[in-house]
Amino acid sequence: MSLKFGTDGVRGLANRELTPEFALSLGLGVGAWIAERGLSPLVAIGADTRRSGPMLGMAFSSGLNSAGVSTLQLGVVPTGCVGWATRRAGCGMGAMISASHNPAPDNGIKLFGADGAKAGSEVEDFVLANLTSREDRPIGSGIGFETDGCEFVDEYVQWLVSIVPENLQRMRICMDCANGAAFNVAPRVLRELGAEVTLVGAEPDGDNINAGYGATHPVTIQRLTQETGADVGVSFDGDADRAVFSDGTGRLVNGDRTMAVWSTHWSKSHRFDPHVIVGTVMTNTGFERAMQGLGVQVERVDVGDKHVSAKLRELAGKIGGEQSGHIVFTDHAPTGDGLVTALELLRVLKISRRTMTEAYDCYEPWPQLLVNVQVRGAKEVAASEDVVAAVVGAREALADEGRVNVRASGTQPMLRVMAEGKDEAIRDRAVQGIVDAVVAGHGGEIVGRVELTHALGD
Q1: What's the CATH fold of domain 162-359?
Q2: What is the pLDDT of residues 226-249, one digit of tens each?
Q3: Segment (H or E) for 453
Q4: Is 371 helix (H, G, I), strand (E, B) or coil?
Q5: What angle separates helix 150-161 from helix 79-88, to the nearest 10 degrees?
Q6: pLDDT for the residue numbered 110
Q7: What DSSP string describes 269-329?
Q8: Mean pLDDT throughout 166-189?
Q9: What is the pLDDT of residue 455?
Q10: Residues above pLDDT 90, as percent of the chain
Q11: The one catalytic residue among 25, 98, 100, 235
Q12: Domain segments of the chain: what residues?
């Protein structure tokens, strides 16, 4: 089986690449890890709204049950609920059946440790090495079985409500659930807090997840927030582990700006300690400089919220995240939860008695450009002599007035070329030189060009 774990679990085209047979074998591998480490033989499982979710979920659960591991079935829930229930129920591991922001035909399986954090490479490598069938499977009462986890979903909702003791009464909020995992839980939480909610992207049919809605299509929430005159708009991705926002004028609030609003408020309130934020190689330098002005240091790691989480643990930090809206608040969870992100931002707006429009101008971003180039062997292409030479040339051109980053996607056959700089013309030439090297020398094809100052990073 050729599927491998990437930046955020294992993903593929459902029923072609990610098959029920593979899911069953993955369940056996997870069961082997649980037995090897003497962990609790119980795994919490959630899913988003994809048509293939039940098919893959049943196969994965069957593999676990065959390995003597029982399953706590949460149903369609945000990814954050899986991590929360894994901790709350004392599970040995957790799993989310989702391909996040990918289109509906794709699906994936991401694993969580007993602490609710994303499983590390040690777990993933072991699981992949133990996919094969075994003869010493348990029989009789040793076989695992399924239990209904709906009570944990209800407890998760009440836990989320407790994050905002000030409530959200009189706050008008637009919400886009991407026809995904948040469609039921998210509006329920905000309405229990007293908010007036205008809802879109909450009619999943198994095939419409992320289709024109959600965090990867932020224009939907931007337009809706502006048209309705709401105080703020929030948009989740398919599995709701990230969130982006819109102010009342329709301006996008990405992960950098979300962290800036939150950190500025608590820093000025003298309740931000330690004075550190964990970002990624994509984090905007304008944001970094603004935080430094508040006495807050920004540390960078590779893209992926599991890298953010690991660095936060090392530094005992309170907040870290990505432009895409994956933000980790360690007081609540060891990994990203889009609903927690939304509630933390809304709470700051409530306490400070400011609208998102009033809070928006907390820093001036350096203009960023991201070009996605589809190419086979993206990692090898990034390390090739001609591409490396182009990157060196771009860095020399930008000097101290900009930055360039080239990385292979962890989820798609793609090279992501990003540059930022105070001079947009120099920035654009820097990016183009690298892209030309990938296209001309390696058969790459440009599939996306995004100004990250105004739109989402991937």
Answers
A1: Alpha-D-Glucose-1,6-Bisphosphate; Chain A, domain 3 (3.40.120)
A2: 999 999 999 999 999 999 999 999
A3: none
A4: strand
A5: 100
A6: 96
A7: TT---S-EEEEETTS-HHHHHHHHHTT-EEEEE-SSHHHHHHHHHHHT-SEEE-TTS-EEE
A8: 97
A9: 39
A10: 86
A11: 100
A12: 5-152, 162-359, 368-451
Q: Report the candidate in 248, 234, 251 with the shortest Cα–Cα distance to residue 199.
A: 234
- How do strand 146-148 and strand 5-6 relate by DSSP bridges? unpaired
200 - beta bridge partners? 176
Contact 223, 200 (CB under 8 A): no
- Mapping DSSP onto H, E and C, the string for 121-148 reads HHHHHHHHHCCCCCCCCCCHHHCCCEEE
> CB of 66 within 8 A of CB of 28?
yes
Domains 5-152 and 162-359 share a fold: yes
Strand order, beta sheet including 276-280? 297-301, 276-280, 319-321, 327-329
Placement of tokens 């930046």 in the chain: 7
Q: Which CATH superfamily is 5-152 part of?
A: Alpha-D-Glucose-1,6-Bisphosphate, subunit A, domain 3 (3.40.120.10)
| Phi, psi for residue 383 in degrees, rounded to 5 | -95, 0
Contact 85, 148 (CB under 8 A): no
Known catalytic residue: 100? yes
d(CA 343, CA 359): 16
Cis preceding linkage at 413, omega within 30: no
Pure H helices in 39-130? 53-66, 79-88, 121-129
Cβ-based burial of 245 (10 A; exposed 0-12, middle 13-18, buried ≥19): buried
The CA angle 340-342-347, to the nearest 5 degrees, is 95
- Tens digits of residue pLDDT in 268-280: 988 899 999 999 9
Percent of the chain with pLDDT over 70: 98
Tell me the residue ranges of DSSP E strands in 231-284: 232-236, 243-246, 252-253, 276-280
Considering the domain delimited by 368-451, tell me its CATH architecture. Answer: 2-Layer Sandwich (3.30)
Average pLDDT, the chain: 94
